[in-house]
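Notes for week 9. Today we move from apo structures to complexes. The key idea is that a small molecule is not decoration. When we ask for a structure prediction with flavin-adenine dinucleotide present, the ligand SMILES becomes part of the input, just like the chain. The input block below holds both the sequence and the ligand string. Read it once before you look at the output, and try to guess where the molecule might sit.
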Amino acid sequence: MPGPDVVHVRGDAVRPERVDVAIIGGGIVGASIALELADRGLSVALCEKGGIGHEQSSRNWGWVRAGDRDPRELPLMVHALTLWDAMHQRTGRDVGFTRSGITFAIHSEEEAAHLERWRSAAEEAGVTSRMLSAATYAKAFTHAPKTDFGAMVTPLDGRAEPQKAAPAIAEAARAKGAAILTRCAVRGVETAAGRVSAVVTEHGPIACDAAVIAGGAWSKLLCRQQNQRFPQLNIMNSVLRTHPLDGGPEGALWTQDFAFRKRQDGGYTIANGSANIVDLVPDSLRYGLYFTHLLRTNWSLMQLRVSGQFWAEVPGVWKQPLDRPGMFEKTRVLDPKPSEALTKGLLDKLGEHWPLFAQAQIAQTWAGYIDMTPDEIPVISSIEAVPGLFLSSGFSGHGFGIAPGAGVLMADLITGETPIVDPTAFRFSRFRDGSELELNGGRRAPIDH
Ligand SMILES: Cc1cc2nc3c(=O)[nH]c(=O)nc-3n(C[C@H](O)[C@H](O)[C@H](O)COP(=O)(O)OP(=O)(O)OC[C@H]3O[C@@H](n4cnc5c(N)ncnc54)[C@H](O)[C@@H]3O)c2cc1C
């Protein structure tokens, strides 16, 4: 497979004819929902067009953070952190989770004020972060570029291995009875008597009472097939990993120029902390207005371009026939080419100041699409207009860490149990019920971590 080396998950040979819930998308979000539902005794099919975890879920930085998270997500994230603590035991697999802390360098008075406000509000949600003076920060990260404004550290934030996590969760779901179907694209959802009755896969239909769209960067196109508008913007971030390095920091660090975290194999995953590429696609016109604030505030850091992705998404403009192969089968794995300027150029620059990284060798580079919503928090919700249809997507560059919690919340919504947190902020209807879309403190947030 292109991109990072993901732990292989074998697909089941037999496709069930009927399940309680069919899940579309085998990233960490779909896998977490499958595990929760299977744990509660429901029959589940997890349908993945490529391999488990081959898109965003294996391409991310591996940060599991509450620090500077949108306050609306914090209660769910606090729960997710406790699920990460137990992940090894629950899945029987080592996903490399460790609470090694995450530090954000601060570059302006405005950022300092935002983070101080955020820190005191977060304390109420049970998250403890500390502001570091410029001198304390310089001592903790001796070779990081100096800043007059210090930093914020959240010591109980952590890291995990993206190439292991979604596969481990999917295998744990299978052990509880879920069907794990790989190379099994879902072309669309069928309804009967006004509610979801089946998902139609490339291998035939699976009858179901409920279907969950957890398609990451593809969710807007899946929603369109059901005539539902889901404003989503996909932003490409380029990443590199180094060969093992001795003596580097354990904790992850974000600065405006770079971000890194130590890997279980002793290397580092490194990326530009802010710069990204936006591929213009047919939906850029349809949903562009929703994202003007994001493009405006990050303008100098966004490169807009037209690439092959434009043509890959053209068929999604129309409703696709369910009886022949379509766009989901055509692109088994979204594997954009990483930007060399944002990988090799970045490491060269980092090495100029930091002796550890001057001797680093690149082991691999890759890129991934981050699926943004206009307010940068996900949808975890039913889609009211189509009874039986649910959506868990739009995690806006920070879904890896929160995914286990999102799995619990979606399982609560499907089974009608009391939701683990108030789901109002994550409702699908917010994009069309006249609600004002808020951002985390109005701050220009770094998009991917
Ligand atoms: C470079 C980068 C860095 C990031 N860093 C972090 C980080 O440090 N911490 C953090 O918390 N988050 C981070 N994120 C975000 C995080 O990776 C995502 O929010 C998370 O992985 C989303 O999971 P998902 O399951 O929704 O999507 P995905 O992992 O993209 O999975 C969706 C799956 O659905 C499948 N699919 C789509 N359509 C169909 C269909 N029709 N039929 C069947 N299958 C289908 C796809 O093939 C795909 O495998 C980062 C993302 C990127 C790209």
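The chain has a mean pLDDT of 93.
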